[in-house]
Amino acid sequence: MRIFQLLLLVSIALVSLWGVSCKHDPIIENVSTNPQDTIHNSGTPCEPGIVYYFRDVQPILMSNCAVSGCHDASTHKEGINYSSFSTTLSTGKVKPNQPNQSKMYKVLFESGEEKMPPNPRPSLTNDQKAIIKKWINQGAKEYFCDANVGCDSVNVSYANDIVPILSNSCTGCHSGNTPSGNVSLDAYQSVATFANNGKLYGTAAHLNGYSPMPPSGNGITDCAKAKIKNWVEQGAPDN
Length: 239
Description:
This protein is mainly α. It has 9 helices and no strands.
């Protein structure tokens, strides 16, 4: 009987040791060592020829109009708040289908004290003005699409990809003679400097230790972040 009990105790001990030794991290299979940067989400694709508020219009407003001291949610100078779709329409400065009767569009061509954005901020580019006009002509609708669908974040160039991102989301504050934070992003050399020191992607991706940019709104799209990341990793070429 004593021998049987001894054998039983030994068996239990061995089983316990086996159970402990079998605890391990879960196995992860099929992990690519060269992941594809191109983003392909399953949302609604953006149709060519359509201006989308969240993709095209809001970044322009957030970078040039809905900024501190002007038409953001906190300041709403003259009662105008361009920080969201609903507040933009509620200002009464947008008349759907009538850009030439819309104060929001007309002030883009003013000068002096009526100029918008006001001095010393730079004026909107012709392309940005055209986007605002087309959006109003479409009826100033809140159309939705997923800008990340079919995103090619691999074949990236400074002129075709990075400049439009910066123009729509950054240079409203970071350009001209007195750029915000003394950070200018309207010329390649200065952009390359911030790209190579990690600040361009760090702020755009809202990484820890960096001031998130743009400072308000939802930030740039995942597609735009991936393009910046890949361009920086390629050495930030002037291509």
